Amino acid sequence: MPRSPRRIRPAAVATVAAALLVLPATTAVASTAANSSWPGGSAVSNADDSDVLGGNMSGLSFQGADVLWAVKNGPGTLYRLVRNGTKWKPDTANGWSSGKALRYRSGKGDPDAEAVVATPDGVVAATERDGDNDKKSALKVLRYDVSGSAKTLTAKAEWDLTADLPKVSANDGLEAVSWIPDSALTAKGFVDERTKAPYNPGTYPGHGTGLYLVGLESNGMIYAYALDQAGGKYTRVASFASGLDSIMELEYEASSGKLWAVCDDNCGGDSTTLAVDAQGKFAVTGTYDRPSAMPDYNNEGFAISPTCASGSKQVVWADDGNEGGHALRAGTLSCG
Predict the structure, then answer these.
(1) How many angstroms separate the CA atoms of 203 and 195, rounded?
(2) 79: which of 36, 99, 206, 328 fits an S-S bond (Cβ 3.0–4.6 Å)?
(3) Is there a contact between 316 and 328 (Cβ–Cβ < 8 Å)?
(4) 229-263 burial, b for 16+ CB within 10 Å, e for fewer?
(5) What average pLDDT score do residues 87-101 get?
């Protein structure tokens, strides 16, 4: 949804004093170190036709190189986008031409879908509230079956994380979701904060083959969950700071093993990368400016193509504000 006025970062003169504070483990701390330049091309281009998708586009996820899933947060809508030359357009098959309305597992409501990720379990969205009751926070993760031609999609599974996460205002909740396979986590020695031991997928029967990570806008924190794929049950496995004041998107880059966290114009379009460190915890490995040629749009979605060509990958941003009549912009990220 449209953001509140931009947050002002702490002044540099406060850095020493802040360093003396003992902060709670779940408090996100933004780095005061200088950012690095965007690790790809400086140029970006419009990646959709004019006034096709409109405003409120909020999350993106590649499925292979030629399908891009996108969600709109008001009304809650899922789009299946396909390549159209250098741009992306709504798929015209199976009822996708105008997107599909989303519903909760009850078949009711208007999920304020802020993020999406395509996984082996299905297409999964994260929401911060029900658009039919938009004064109340409702931090939920929803899984959808995207086969078939129905124009409305009812969640096949639903996880209400509200009670497990910090209390936030209705428009300050879940803005990001990603998925990391168990094999990648165990290979890096990821530690389960609940058990204080190396993560063992067998501890969580029925959770599928990976963990879901969600990002909370209000504090820039990331929370990792084992979600029982029957729906309802969940277990928090870890939580860690993104290195950003606020978070709008998460994207796992399998080829590098990095988790990307992205902020919008509240943070000047900054992004961070995180990886599992020697202690088995996710830690920030880099902080980057947006591409120099891209204005400070209200970018709430970000996705990285899995395909590398001539040393770079396509990346796509979703602009909630639909500036200039365009919701999508594309750029490049260096491979490796």
Answers:
(1) 10
(2) 99
(3) yes
(4) bebeebbebbbbbbbbbbbbbbbbbeeebbbbbbb
(5) 97
d(CA 290, CA 282): 22
pLDDT digits (tens, 9 = 90+) for 27-47: 444 445 689 999 999 999 999
Q: Which two tokens stand for residue 132?
A: 């039919």
Closest CA to 308 of 335, 287, 270, 274: 335
Phi, psi of 187 (to 5 degrees): -65, -30
Q: What is the pLDDT of residue 175?
A: 98
Strand partners, 71: 59, 78
> Distance between CA atoms of 11 and 118, rounded to whole angstroms?
39
Which amino acid is it at 307? Answer: T
pTM of the model: 0.91
Q: Which tens digits make up the pLDDT trace of 196-214?
A: 999 999 999 999 999 999 9
Strand (E) or helix (H) holding 19: helix 15-19
Both tokens of 324, joined, read 């200039």
User: H/E element holding 191?
Assistant: strand 191-192
Quick one: how far is CA 42 from the chain centroid? Answer: 22
Q: Rounded to whole angstroms, how far apart are CA atoms 244 and 247?
A: 7
Note whether 142 and 104 are within 8 A (CB): yes
Res 10 pLDDT > 60: no
Q: Which phi and psi angles does 139 have, rounded to 5°?
A: -90, 95
In order of 81, 91, 108, 313, the CA distances from 66 in angstroms are: 8, 11, 32, 13
C-alpha 165/C-alpha 206 separation (Å) is 22
75 residue type, one letter: P
